[in-house]
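Please predict the structure of the following assembly.
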Amino acid sequence: MFDPIEVLSPSVSDLDDEAYSLDDFEGVDSRWCHRCGNNAILTAVQKLCAEEQLAPEKTVFVSGIGCSSRLPHYMGTYGFHALHGRALPVAEGIKIRRPDLHVFVTTGDGDCCSIGAGHWLHAIRYNMNMTVLLHDNQIYGLTKKQVSPTSPRGLVSNTSPHGAHLEPLNPLAATLGMSNISFVAHAVDWVPSVLCDIIKQAFHHRGLAFVCIMQRCPNYLPDHFEEYIKDPERMVLLTHAQGLQVEDAVAKRFKHREEHDPRDIDRARELANNRERVPLGILYRNPDVLCYEDVRAGVEHLSVSDKISALEREFDKFTVQPPS
Amino acid sequence: MNDSTAVSTLNDDQSSPVVAGQPQVRRLRDHVIEIISDSGEGAQKCGQSFASIAAKMGHGIWTVEIIPAEIEPPARSIEGASGNRIRVGSFEVANGGDEADLVVAFNEQVLLGRVRTGALKPGCIILLENKWRHHQDLAIVAAYTSTYDKLVADGYRVYEIPMEQVCLQHTSTPQRGKNMFVLGMLNRLYHQDLELAREQVAFTFRSKSADVVDRNIKLLQAGYDWVGENLDLRFEIPSAKREQAQIVVSGNTSLALGIMASGMEICAMYPITPATSASHYLSEVFENVGGLVHQAEDEIAACGFAIGASYAGKCSVTITSGPGMALKQELIGLAAMAEIPLVIVNVQRGGPSTGLPTKVEQGDLLQAIFGTHGDAPRVVLAAATIEECFYLPITARKIAEAFNLPVVLLTDANLATAQQPFARPRLRKDWFAAPVDQSAIPEGEAPYDWDHTTGLHRRFTPGQPGGMHTLTGLAHDRKSRVAYDPATNEEGLRHRSLKLAAFQKTLTVPEVCGDANGDLLVVGWGSTKGVIEEAVEQVRAEGQAVACLHLTYLQPMASGIGDIMKRYQQVMTVEMNWGDRVDDELIDSENRRYSSLAWLLRARYLVDVDCWTEVQGQPLKPRSVARVIRNKLTKE
């Protein structure tokens, strides 16, 4: 759906007068660990904001709790660092009557897939126009190395000293199994150009764009993603005219490439479920899914007098006149 | 009319109708009437219609819904009574009164349920459907006759009435039509205006065909006529003089109207009894004033959604009941910490845990004030009347936005479903919200520029240029930067707490009802106001020097309450939450757990406040409270 407010927002109309640079999107200095994958994600979103010339005051980064959820503090935009698991409902509330705001959610695998899992499922279904970045490092970092729902079976942590007991939850497959999905992509922090491209497409998607990002935790799981980084057999790059288009120089780094039409939900699910060779790119995109805020937009620009008249009509229904 | 014995107006074979002479009219100050049936037989519609007519005639009314716990309890079950209690008076009725004076029952089993819960006055008049006496199932006949005999033996004045049999002359489905027949009966019994009743029936069935309206008006007439020919009972309750137009709604509808008038545009909720009916009505009409009801995936999400919307400039409300309130507590703490306006309505029910979902209790006062980790100051206020259910959401939003904090509004299951007329409000433009502030923030201003005296600060809303900051639930400094240093943490706690003091300075001393000083002060809060005041009036009429004080603001409390308490020999709260009974063997002054308000008063004012509580899931009765007051006066 076409949203006139976004077109008229200062981020576009003021372009000639005032250009935002990367500096405008910097908040306080990042306190993440050296080589933490979150830094790559932060750079990618700052780059996006600058490229898209988003007005910092019209942009809100919402997060829950966890390492990833510190991201809003490092932005120069508005930010809402909420409670563990509760970023999505807060983001929905922000968006519901403020279509002029660009809403981003940054969340982690514990935040989104464990304590906030119920909200995740429903946020996908509400399909509100926002970009959701799941920083999936497959471990609890802030609380110092506990097993997460996305930790692989056997992973040794402080709460699984003999190895994780269960098969991991697959966020991509789970999301693709939900109703009303409209955008699902998978990225990795160590291929920043593809990460940036995906985040850009996610931002331009109208609806909830869910981007799951494999994110390295150098402190607690230092070599955890090495197999994906080093073994070309473990990843497949998805490209398509309707999806990701990648420069040859980047594409060449991938032994396995697939032309995947993001409208093909069945193939998207197959790709998501293949844990031997994880997909990189846009798995699914459907711009025609209804957005909750559009369905619930209601009557615009009611004056106070209109509201008073409407309420008087309600009073009429319940009014008892004095005995004549 | 015979006052001392039970009378049956019809013999078993129904061949000899009782000839009614010129019935004597008994003039009453007030009467409590119950109409009860199996679920789905329309007793509620009958009761509500009867109450509306009474209100139109200028009577004071208070109605209480009688609701079974299940949606469709089995027919003819003791637990299954569904219907309405209506107290009609010649004065402004402010509570449901004592036991019932007259009960209309569609079967003897639901009646038995009410008898066993003590809902009937000794010698209560019972108008009972008698079709069960002729039922083909002999077990039913036996149940009916034995119950009937027992009721008569116990002194109830039972009138057996062939309701469905008479209705059959006007409808092929008498089970569904007899509620209007009963309305006609009551109309005659209570000297109501028949024309008003016709209008009421037409209004009730306004969405149905003309045939349906017509049939129901005939049934109404049939009931009216039947009483004229067969019953020698008549009551007359003088109506109160009234000049103003009034609104007749339940507390939950009143609450929804208040939310609409408050300027709040978003209500985020999750279904929970007994709060949900407010959201039902709001869902129907909120959009007419630009509002929106969001049914979230759970209670926590509803609160998060409301906080997000408030943060973005649209002050929001979340409506819930005790269990949902408990789930929202962590987010209420966030709203307190990050200083986001938020209104939480808690329509209290019996607890703990799932407790008594459909029944009344005042068990959530302490969780409303203290119920989250750390110090999370919020304002707590409680509605005492149906009218306050309308006005307090407006006040709550103003406080939430002026002081940037959560405001909890407590109502309860009693107010939620009760109806009581109040003066039609005059709407004010300043109740509605101003457009979201999108002006630029002057350079150098910080998002938490706390005023050293009041703790207040100007909140920055997304969209305001120059106001960019990251709001956080972590300890933070004036610039909203995460700060773990000891001084900054204390600075935040101090300023958030000061706001309550600043707000408290705006409150006026609450008024005492009754003697300005004397032997006993009864303190209450919430829906018990009408009952306590009536009880105090009863005891005062006997020459005792007592008074009552009802608190709207529970956190913070207004100045002057301590001074008021000092003017009385004794102070006691009357509440509907648990307080240990002093006559229990193990209970002494060192271990007694007081009721909620008593705890608060004792802690703040160092006064030896006693408490009396009842937690039976039923509204308090004026007579019981009057008895408690008398006992308290004689004991000491």
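Confidence is low (pLDDT under 50) at residues 1-15 of chain A. The domain at 4-298 of chain A is CATH 3.40.50.970 (Rossmann fold).
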